[in-house]
UniProtKB/TrEMBL annotation:
Pfam families: FIT. It catalyses: an acyl-CoA + H2O = an acyl-4'-phosphopantetheine + adenosine 3',5'-bisphosphate + 2 H(+); (5Z,8Z,11Z,14Z)-eicosatetraenoyl-CoA + H2O = S-(5Z,8Z,11Z,14Z-eicosatetraenoyl)-4'-phosphopantetheine + adenosine 3',5'-bisphosphate + 2 H(+); hexadecanoyl-CoA + H2O = S-hexadecanoyl-4'-phosphopantetheine + adenosine 3',5'-bisphosphate + 2 H(+); (9Z)-octadecenoyl-CoA + H2O = S-(9Z-octadecenoyl)-4'-phosphopantetheine + adenosine 3',5'-bisphosphate + 2 H(+). The gene is SCS3. Belongs to the FIT family. Fungal FIT2B/SCS3 subfamily. Residues 227-237 have a biased composition (Basic and acidic residues). It is found in: Endoplasmic reticulum membrane. The active site is at H198, H281. Its EC number is 3.6.1.-. InterPro entries: FIT, SCS3. This is Acyl-coenzyme A diphosphatase SCS3. GO terms for molecular function: coenzyme A diphosphatase activity. It comes from the Eukaryota.
Length: 319
């Protein structure tokens, strides 16, 4: 039997994302530093080009540490952001009582096993969308494909190929079909609509962790979970049950630190989203990244509340 529905975050919490983007974009327009950086471009100031940061060589003369592409948080947090999300997500499933199979009754085990499977399924769904959008979609990722479909190309690299007169330029050009290969070849990825991968990934990862953490946290705070931990404490005070006591103590530490890890990733993710909103991309590119991420969140976390058949498959965190 599954537990009764618990308070889950209202979809209204998702408003935090447009608010962050709005504040960041407004700051980028109002702040003399941000405007000064942008106006130093040889490109027209408006509309801000998709490859603005690349064109401005921001990392070479940063107006602000967070405007540098090589800032430590970008390199070791956002650029491997899905790994951070995965570790934080896994820590919830491993250490939160909502999922913990040890010292649980048979019925609790069944509920928790189902919850764990559904949590894994939600992670798989989100990972598949992330992967198709940013890494691979039967070749270049969807973000790269949409950029090219809207007229974007690898500008300088194309010129170089033409100037040097390479024997088979078409072969060269085929390798310029992603932003990464284009930039690696010294080209400029410009001309089309470049959905912000950072906005997409940061919104999806932080929203997902928020929904999961609130769901798991609600179970830990519910009366039935409290009764369980009381039971564990009684066993722990029993000298014949010392090993059970160790498990209870371990899970207490794990539970606390998994939540700290999750909220640490979420808060840093929100901060980096704010930085992206200030220093990178056009308004439209930020909003399109946001729209794709929120649509994914809607399907995985909001739709199951309205569609029982879908809820039976993907579940609701903590239910
Ligand atoms: C039709 C069938 C499709 C099947 C698809 C299945 C997908 C399965 C994928 C399995 C992958 C497992 C992932 C495991 C988790 C990881 O840890 S991946 C390794 C860490 N890598 C990252 O976190 C990369 C994150 N970075 C990005 O996504 C991008 O850099 C960016 C932040 C979006 C920015 O992109 P830029 O190009 O720098 O602008
Ligand atoms: N918050 C941030 N901090 C540093 N660099 C950022 C950033 N947000 C976006 N960028 C950089 O801006 C470019 C476009 O990002 P995206 O399309 O993913 O939103 C990427 O450059 P590189 O691809 O040259 O690293 C990315 O690293």
């Amino acid at each position: 039997m599954s537990s009764p529905a618990r308070p889950a975050p209202s979809p209204v919490v998702l408003l935090v994302y447009p608010v962050i983007l709005l504040l960041g974009s407004l700051f980028s327009v109002i702040s003399p530093t941000a405007r000064g950086t942008r106006s130093s471009s040889s490109e027209p100031a408006a509309p801000i080009a998709p490859s603005l940061a690349a064109d401005l060589h921001i990392s070479e003369s940063p107006a602000n540490y967070f405007a540098r592409k090589d800032n430590i948080f970008n390199l070791y947090f956002v650029k491997i952001g899905w790994l951070w999300l995965t570790v934080a997500f896994a820590s919830l499933v491993l250490f939160q009582p909502a999922y913990n199979l040890s010292s649980a009754s048979q019925t609790q085990r069944e509920v928790r096993f189902r919850r764990s499977l559904q949590a894994f399924l939600r992670w798989c769904l989100a990972t598949t969308v992330w992967y198709l959008m940013t890494q691979w979609f039967f070749g270049p990722a969807i973000i790269d494909r949409s950029f090219m479909i809207t007229g974007g190309k690898c500008a300088q690299a194309l010129n170089q190929v033409a100037e040097v007169g390479l024997q088979s330029p078409s072969v060269q050009l085929e390798t310029m079909f992603t932003a990464a290969t284009c930039k690696a070849a010294g080209g400029a990825w410009r001309g089309g609509h470049d959905i912000s991968g950072h906005v997409f990934m940061l919104v999806l990862a932080t929203a997902l962790l928020t929904f999961e953490a609130v769901g798991a946290g609600a179970v830990a705070a519910s009366p039935s979970a409290a009764r369980e931990s009381e039971g564990r404490e009684r066993k722990a005070s029993d000298p014949n049950a010392s090993s059970t006591g160790d498990v209870a103590a371990d899970s207490g530490v794990g539970r606390t630190w998994s939540m700290r890890l999750v909220w640490g990733v979420v808060i840093l993710g929100w901060w980096m989203l704010f930085m992206t909103a200030i220093w990178f991309h056009t308004w439209l590119e930020k909003w399109s990244g946001l729209a794709v991420a929120l649509s994914t969140v809607y399907v995985i976390y909001i739709l199951p509340r309205k569609l029982p058949a879908w809820k039976d498959i993907v579940g609701i965190p903590g239910v």
